[in-house]
Amino acid sequence: IVRTFTQTAAMAAAIKNVTVIGSGLMGAGIAQVAAQTGHHVTMVDIDEVAVGKAKDRIGASIQRVAKKKFAQDPEAGQKFISSALEKLQISTDAISSVKSADLVVEAIVENLDVKKKLFAQLDEVAPSHAIFASNTSSLPIGKIAAATNRKDRFGGLHFFNPVPVMKLLEVVRIPETSQGTYEAMCDWGKAMGKVTVECKDTPGFIVNRLLVPYMFEAVRMLDRGWHAEYPENTLFEPCELLTNMVAEGKHGVKSGKGFYEYNKK
Ligand code: NAI
């Protein structure tokens, strides 16, 4: 246990230099929050114009954050802005940008082959201790990690849009992800001000696995007409688990127990 803790603490403490690849909607948000929370960040994109514009957008967004966060203390707000911007570099050269990285977060186009090609190249040049993570929404992390020789230092860090606002971070582990890597990713997520939740490498992880069928059902309802009744639809069949829970008085918060136990204070 002591060794695990030491390794984890060492890895988490080591995440100071973060390279974010992709400066679109998600990459720019991740880079912004990382810089705001004191990390040295290099944000990379193949598109020079895009990465320049992303930096401008980040500047404007940090100003808005500072205005809110330091409403009573504009001087501290200015310090917050300049210190975050000083920590943010931009580049179009992924290879040289990972040479001193402790963590690489990829947020490029959602294409398995493109992501694999990128990680295979980065694996050759990044420091051996560096952790690689993908922000993919729908591709298996295991398939992306297979392009590298560091599966034990590979995982998913799935943020939500807009990154500076959304608190949740899904931390995805593949079977090969080491405990030290997993804990270092969680600790980094917390240092970014996020609430981390552990996910297995399954399609949609947690949030999209719940959200996408829910949204599809709304579309299907629209497709078949809202007023039609479908008594044969299995979706509306009583569920045994729920029936039993109701019979046992497990009514959720109001009864102090349901899927969870609630402590009355
Ligand atoms: P985006 O299209 O806004 O940005 C992608 C950026 O990656 C572009 O600027 C593009 O020039 C750059 N890029 C493409 N190939 C590259 C390469 N080989 N090297 C460097 N840069 C490259 O995409 P967005 O929405 O930011 O999504 C990025 C990733 O994040 C995807 O994997 C997506 O599934 C995931 N994601 C998206 C969410 C969303 O709400 N949009 C939420 C959570 C995850």
TrEMBL record:
Primary subcellular site in the record, as a coarse category: mitochondrion
GO annotation (BP), single: fatty acid beta-oxidation
Pfam families referenced in this protein's UniProt entry, alphabetically: 3HCDH, 3HCDH_N
GO molecular function: (3S)-3-hydroxyacyl-CoA dehydrogenase (NAD+) activity; NAD+ binding
Domain 3-hydroxyacyl-CoA dehydrogenase NAD binding as annotated: residue spans: 17-202
Record-annotated 3-hydroxyacyl-CoA dehydrogenase C-terminal domain positions: 226-262
Catalytically driven reaction(s): a (3S)-3-hydroxyacyl-CoA + NAD(+) = a 3-oxoacyl-CoA + NADH + H(+)
Compartment(s) of residence: Mitochondrion matrix
Residues the record marks as site: Important for catalytic activity: 158
EC number(s) from the headed UniProt entry: 1.1.1.35
GO-annotated cellular components: mitochondrial matrix
Pathway: Lipid metabolism; fatty acid beta-oxidation
Annotated CoA binding sites: 61, 68, 137
Record keywords: Fatty acid metabolism, Lipid metabolism, Mitochondrion, NAD, Oxidoreductase
Family designation: Belongs to the 3-hydroxyacyl-CoA dehydrogenase family.
Protein name per the record: 3-hydroxyacyl-CoA dehydrogenase
Organism: Meganyctiphanes norvegica (Northern krill)
Lineage: Eukaryota, Metazoa, Ecdysozoa, Arthropoda, Crustacea
